[in-house]
User: Fold this.
Amino acid sequence: MRAIALTGPERVEIVEVPEPDLLPGTVLVDIDRCGIGGTDLQAFRTGEVPAPAWFGHEWSGRIVEIGDGVAGRFVGERVVGAVPPPCGRCRPCHAGLGEHCEEALALIVGTHPTASHTGGFAERVRVDARRVHRIPDGVDDSNAALAESAAVAAHAVGLADQRLGDVVVVVGAGTVGLLVAELARLAGAARVLAVDVAPARRELACSLGADAAFGPGPEIGRWLAAAGHGLGADVVYECAGPPLAVEQSLLAARHGGTVVLVGTAVPPAVIDPADLVARHLTLRASRGYTIGDVHRALDLMADDRFRVAAIHERMVGFDELPAALAELSSDLSARRKVLFSPKD
Ligand SMILES: [Zn+2]
Assistant:
């Protein structure tokens, strides 16, 4: 079968590789779509991945073969790859922290022995059957490939303790930030402001339901003065990562507000504990997602309340994927989601 192999920094090749063997407890999935995500672009830039299966992990597809010991799946079932249930055997599981299960992480990242020798930029993958989740009717293959990002967004919104009528600021309008903004609205926010350096993303945020979108600067304060009753935001979701974005997120929160950290701050941001105490801020860190978040995100898409199609920019096949990776990697600011389809 054909696959895209990462062969070095900014170097990928279209290669012929053997189809993955079916193992007990696994299924073989024909890839329909695979989104190019931030981790794929990071892998492309550095030439390094924790495991080959990690390169292209936002996929949707169809089950074509089922291994021994797998129950409840059928050939032809449309599925996405996502987090499996906690193993119940590792240290975090024994401590009651199933969301931090070491085996689940190994299965997701692709370092588990059953992981495929390629990621989703291929015609077919082998995947542990516990990792596949059915795509509801009403969610197409392209939108389903956003399931993992949408679940990350749902997890963050779930941690925020948002209330009806809250004023919300989303810092960073990349894929996850855009999805967070939409879900924050669905969760009852009265006003949603998106903040991003890229005009194209700000425009997209507004078309997806944000009330306003600004670049970093004094306009945020002016908007909050009006929409936030002069107090600031009830909830701020930090989905960008740069230290400045973290610092601005803390500034945008009102006295007693909540800041949810979704982006990963690199390099470290400066946070003033005295300010957190003085303003009685709640800081929540949101890492990953649960199976419940996947179900919630897909069900909302199926009900046509969570509309994600506008996040997709275009679809590429094998021949165009190397150029698409190079293009996206060199210009992170303005692009929307590009999907790979092996049938294209
Ligand atoms: Zn575990």
Q: What stands out?
A: The two ends are 15 Å apart (CA to CA). The chain is about 30% helix and 25% strand. The chain has a mean pLDDT of 94.
